[in-house]
Automatic annotation (TrEMBL):
This is Shikimate kinase. Monomer. Mg(2+) binds at residue 16. Pfam families: SKI (PF01202). Substrate binds at residues 34, 58, 80, 136. It comes from Amycolatopsis melonis. Its main location: cytoplasm. Coiled coil: none annotated. ATP binds at residues 12-17, 117, 153. Keywords: Amino-acid biosynthesis, Aromatic amino acid biosynthesis, ATP-binding, Cytoplasm, Kinase, Magnesium, Metal-binding, Nucleotide-binding, Transferase.
Length: 173
């Protein structure tokens, strides 16, 4: 069993929004590794970061993503930092992985000042977001088989584009 598509990208790129809509369009189930972590830990992500620290969160995330990759055959959205784990990058090999790209301005605007995103909750979210994008772009590109620009495009437009690009080759002939 293998997910039809795995979605990666920075916070605010639309992994949850696009993933859910893509799953509906393809008529398959949707799963989000952030939701799996919250269900498994019985605590919010902000609480796990605050109480256990980021390394403990990342270890739990790697395990949770490995389970979801093995169990789920629909659309699977990963947490924004999930591909930072070397083991997760190795597990993603051979999967259809969609990188939702978002620029600095749109990313900052979409994530706002939400305390639900502990990595962006500091005093200068714009600078933090820029650093995160600079560090992670190569990581997202390493695992992705499809890259989609999301700036100035609606979720419906992005999903229509993606659904066409993910269609099996024979369906396009
Ligand atoms: N293409 C888009 N255009 C405009 N707004 C969008 C778009 N995609 C998502 N959004 C909005 O941006 C916000 C963040 O989207 P979403 O939660 O799907 O991102 P995410 O990648 O799952 O973030 P996180 O990594 O924090 O889970 C939401 O308010 C959503 O409605
Ligand atoms: O980009 C990140 O590192 C994160 C993104 C979210 O999806 C959560 O997984 C968590 O807030 C960390
Ligand atoms: Mg999300």
């Amino acid at each position: 069993m293998s997910p039809r598509a795995v979605i990666v990208g920075p916070p605010g790129s639309g992994k949850t929004t696009i993933g859910r809509l893509l799953a509906k369009t393809l008529g398959v189930g949707f799963r989000d590794s952030d939701d799996d972590i919250v269900a498994r830990a019985g605590r919010s992500i902000a609480d796990i970061f605050a109480e256990d620290g980021e390394p403990a969160f990342r270890a739990l995330e790697e395990e949770t993503v490995a389970t979801a990759l093995a169990e789920h055959d629909g659309v699977l959205s990963l947490g924004g930092g999930a591909p930072l784990a070397k083991g997760t990058r190795a597990r993603l090999a051979g999967h259809t992985v969609v990188f939702l790209n978002v620029g600095l301005a749109a990313g900052v605007q979409r994530t706002g000042l939400s305390s639900a995103r502990p990595l962006l909750a500091g005093v200068n979210p714009r600078a933090t977001f820029k650093k995160l994008l600079d560090e992670r772009l190569p990581v997202y590109r390493e695992v992705a088989t499809v890259e989609v620009v999301t700036d100035e495009r609606t979720p419906a437009e992005i999903v229509a584009d993606l659904a066409a690009r993910l269609a099996p080759a024979e369906a396009k002939e």
